[in-house]
Structures are given as structure tokens and as C-alpha cells.
UniProtKB/TrEMBL annotation:
<dbReference type="InterPro" id="IPR002035">
    <property type="entry name" value="VWF_A"/>
</dbReference>
<dbReference type="Pfam" id="PF00092">
    <property type="entry name" value="VWA"/>
</dbReference>
<feature type="domain" description="VWFA">
    <location>
        <begin position="74"/>
        <end position="216"/>
    </location>
</feature>
<dbReference type="InterPro" id="IPR036465">
    <property type="entry name" value="vWFA_dom_sf"/>
</dbReference>
<protein>
    <recommendedName>
        <fullName>VWFA domain-containing protein</fullName>
    </recommendedName>
</protein>
Length: 261
């Protein structure tokens, strides 16, 4: 009975935290994008060149409150809860979404406590910013993903574009300092692939944002598998899924390998 009460209390906390903040993402086909023009660079060279672009993050008309912690690392996680995640392929008999929930939960626990983390989820209700970018709170993040129900499509273009915009806003608050990452965990091809390619090209060419993609049960065949440009990790089982998420933090000085189970 005590465990049930604790679970209900945590769920209530998640609902209260998300009621005023959860945002449904809407598509906007009028956005301006630029084609990726850099080729033949290693990931570090590409990142260094994009980081030298003084046009990012730019300025905003709104009066933003500048962050006191300008070197903070930022992670926007895009969690695929589409209908295909209800299947059992690559899950060792378990549903893909159950395997993904455990792996992403361990990932949240392993992220630096002083980092900022946001969570976008898409399911039969559409794409939603369920946890806006803020200080890492693994309990809230895990409670949201643990309650995800598989359903709906795979709007990767929409969600990548939204995450990029929010990281740009955070970049303005940090005056361009710090690190900026989008982490995508998906088991499907984008339902809006043309839009996704335009958004990705824009991110790569014009921002210092790093895109990390774990393709669950997809192998090497995904539009986000751009060698030397995007950190793409195929995962055919639970172990490889965890290893793919580990790769996101592999170069972080605050990451300890034994903290990721």
C-alpha cells in the first residue's frame, strides 16, 4: 500500500508539473532553412567550424534573463513513443517501448546533475514538449517516459526543429557558451522526412548543436545516419541501445561509465 501511495504521489507531481508547461508542437511549413554546405570534415572539425559562427545564437526581441551558469551543458531528448514501439522485435521478447523506457531512464540518471534537460515525446496525441528545458530532474523525466503509451506517427522533422529553437533560446541566455545536444531515440523513419532533412541541414550548417541518434531496430538505414556529421548508433537489442546512449556522454568529463547500467 505504501508503494502504491508513493507511485500515485509521484504521478500527481508529474501531472502538476506538466499541466502548465506541456506544449503541443505545431507544424510550420514556412520556416526558413539553409542547405548544408560543409563536407568531408571530421565531427570535431565540423563542430569547431560551426562553433566559430558568431551568428549563433543571435539576439532576440524578448528580454531574456541571462543565465549565471554560462558553461552549462544542454540536452533535448526526443523520445519515440509511436505505434511501432509497441512491437516486440529487438526487445528480446519485450515490447520495444519497455526496453527504451529502461534505457532512457538510466540515461537521465547518468546525465550531469548540473546540466539542463528537456524532453519531447510523440505518440497518438501528437508531439509534445512534456518537460521544458531545465535543470536535470531524473525522477520527473523517468516518470513521464515510464507512463508513455505507444501510438501515432513519427514526426522527427517537427520535433528536431522545435528542439533546435529551444536550444537557440537557451544559447542566447548563456550568450553562446556551453554545449548543446539533441538526443533522438527512435525505431522508425520520419513521417515528415523532407522537413526533417531541411531542419537537420540547417542545424548542421548554422549552429553548434550536436545531434545524436539511436536507431532502435533500424540498422544502418536511416535518414539521420550521416557519417562524420551526426552521431548515429544503430541498436538491435537492449544492450546496444544502452551503449548507443552511452556514446552521447562518452566525451563528457563528468560522465562515469559505471553510472550507466
Amino acid at each position: 500500500m505504501k508503494r502504491i501511495r508513493c507511485s500515485l504521489a509521484l504521478l500527481s507531481l508529474v501531472i502538476l508539473a506538466g499541466c502548465d508547461q506541456e506544449k503541443v508542437l505545431a507544424d510550420n511549413d514556412n520556416e526558413k532553412t539553409h542547405q548544408f554546405l560543409i563536407s568531408g570534415l571530421t565531427p570535431k572539425q565540423s563542430y569547431a567550424l560551426r562553433g566559430a559562427d558568431q551568428s549563433w545564437p543571435g539576439t532576440d526581441d524578448k528580454k531574456l534573463i541571462l543565465s549565471k551558469e554560462k558553461e552549462t551543458s544542454n540536452y533535448y531528448v526526443i523520445f519515440d513513443s509511436s505505434g511501432s514501439m509497441d512491437e516486440r522485435g529487438c526487445g528480446n521478447g519485450e515490447r520495444r517501448i519497455d526496453v527504451a523506457k529502461r534505457a532512457i531512464g538510466n540515461f537521465f540518471d547518468a546525465l550531469p546533475k548540473n546540466s539542463n534537460v528537456g524532453l519531447i515525446l510523440f505518440d497518438e496525441k501528437g508531439a509534445r514538449d512534456v518537460v521544458p528545458l531545465k535543470k536535470n530532474d531524473p525522477l520527473i523525466l523517468k516518470a513521464v517516459t515510464n507512463n508513455a503509451v505507444a501510438g501515432g506517427g513519427t514526426p522527427l522533422g517537427l520535433t528536431l526543429g522545435y528542439a533546435s529553437e529551444k536550444l537557440q533560446e537557451q544559447g542566447q541566455k548563456q550568450q553562446g557558451y556551453g554545449e548543446y545536444n539533441i538526443v533522438v531515440l527512435t525505431d522508425g523513419q520520419a513521417g515528415d522526412e523532407e522537413k526533417m532533412i531541411k531542419v537537420v541541414n540547417d542545424i548542421i550548417a548554422n549552429t553548434p548543436i550536436n545531434i545524436h541518434t539511436i536507431g532502435f531496430c533500424l540498422g544502418e538505414h536511416h535518414a539521420l545516419n550521416k557519417s562524420g556529421i551526426i552521431n548515429y548508433q544503430p541498436a538491435s537489442n537492449a544492450t546496444e541501445l544502452v551503449e548507443g546512449l552511452k556514446s552521447v556522454l562518452a566525451e563528457s568529463s563528468s560522465f562515469k561509465d559505471d553510472s550507466f547500467q
